[in-house]
Amino acid sequence: MENSQPILSVSGIRGIVGASLTPELVARLVEIWSATFRGAVVLGRDSRPSGGELQEAARDVLLAGGHAVHEVGIVPTPTLGRAVRQLQARAGLQITASHNPPQWNGLKLFNAQGRALPPQEAAPLLQQFRAVLEADAAVSTSRSARSVADKRPSVESEIVDWRERALQEHVEAVLACVNNETIQRRRFRVLVDGNGGAGGPLATHLLHALGCQVVPVHCEPDGVFRHEPEPTPAALREIAPLVVQCGCDVGFALDSDADRLVLMDETGRCLSEEMTLALAAEARLRQRPGPIVANLSTSLMVEVLCQRRGFACYRTPVGEAHVVDGILASGAVLGGEGNGGVIDPRVGLVRDPFVGMALVLELLAELGKPLSTLSASLPAFVMRKEKHALEQITWHEVRKRLLAAMTGADVDDRDGLYFRWPDRWLHVRPSNTEPVVRILAEAPSAEQTDSLVQLARAALIA
């Protein structure tokens, strides 16, 4: 879907390169953001080919503004978040569009905590960004970019390349979270699908450190996506059978900026992305029982696992920043989202598939059971996920219809509309990252889930 304007949200800025996102616009937005603080900035990107030009535009503005730039190159998004804290920088900027299609790119902003900007920090900044877009200031942004480039300081004296240090420290932090010897003794054979994204090299490095035999698939960060960048079971239908063909115990798949993880079991079955957080939570709760934080759209599996141990599962609006707020407020031992995102505060305050891999491997090693058996033992629910364009109807009207149609449910309106019954839920919300409305529902049976989805679809019909 082509967009004339970039999407601005708590998740960052995303647009179609050359249309709604240009180097000139990136320069203007980075200029606005970087004027809000003083100090060093960690700058990186995912592997999309368009990232180089956008990174250069951002770098020029940062240097012209007097900021030291710590470049980490093509790295996973959680690596950049960690580097902000490790290098004691004031901020971080990752050029990425996460799981969006290849023609997209974007900006993800980090504060000095190495986390995505919390909503209270992001709101005034997004307001300024929207003002730029609404003013259609194409001429002034181009002039601004040129003037910034004209007065750019010497790149050699201002830029430091920290890539290798950032990657190594990330691996060491993950290794400190699990029992290395237990995992190493199992000598797991592991397939990793990097899909040409930023995470392949770090994944293979970590797995070798854990004593695994690694079968890398598309792990070069060349920006060539062999399948859809969002690692869903549908996207991985040609990858999952390779787990069996290569004689592997488990398969791991990453998205393009490596902040999501999807699991494939030893039978070649791709598990629902919802199971990633559930299994990571089971592993973490075995290490240290405590509360867990998940967003509203995450499976009830995580709640049930917490309830079995007598701890709370706190719910937040969708978006990494909201989950991180929940983790910090509750002192949770783990958090995440049902999109394959795992956040372990021991490593960082960003979705991190690498600690997810390590936790799952520890669980497999300690229990001595295959992944197919462990996934089958999780609480059983059926979830449906859909997305629809809003055509000839407004979100206000959809909201009104849904509130009238749903009876007997508790309603949470922090993020779209979330309807909750004791054993099921329906979440309908405008996406933060795409120009669509998302429908998510979960219940004990397929029939119950489909019934909820049908009610939501009816509200979208003009």
In words, what does this structure look like?
The chain is α/β, with parallel strands linked by helices and 462 residues long. The protein has 3 domains: 7-164, Alpha-D-Glucose-1,6-Bisphosphate, Chain A, domain 3 (3-Layer(aba) Sandwich); 176-376, 3-Layer(aba) Sandwich (Alpha-D-Glucose-1,6-Bisphosphate, Chain A, domain 3); 382-460, TATA-Binding Protein (2-Layer Sandwich). The chain has 17 helices and 20 strands. It has a 7-stranded mixed sheet with strand order 1-2-6-5-3-4-7, sandwiched between helices. Strands 16-20-19-18-17 form a 5-stranded antiparallel sheet, with helices on one face. It is globular.
Question: How are the SSEs ordered, and which strands pair?
Answer:
Elements (H helix, E strand, L loop, with lengths): L6 E3 L2 E5 L6 H12 L6 E5 L5 H14 L4 E6 L2 H10 L4 E5 L8 E7 L8 H16 L3 H13 L4 H4 E3 L1 H13 L4 H7 L2 E5 L6 H10 L3 E5 L23 H5 L4 E5 L6 E4 L9 H14 L4 E4 L4 H9 L4 E4 L3 H11 L3 E4 L3 E3 L9 H15 L3 H6 L5 E7 L6 H11 L4 E3 L4 E5 L2 E7 L6 E7 L2 H15 L2
Parallel strand pairs: 3-4, 3-5, 4-7, 8-9, 8-10, 12-13, 12-14
Antiparallel strand pairs: 1-2, 2-6, 5-6, 10-11, 14-15, 16-20, 17-18, 18-19, 19-20
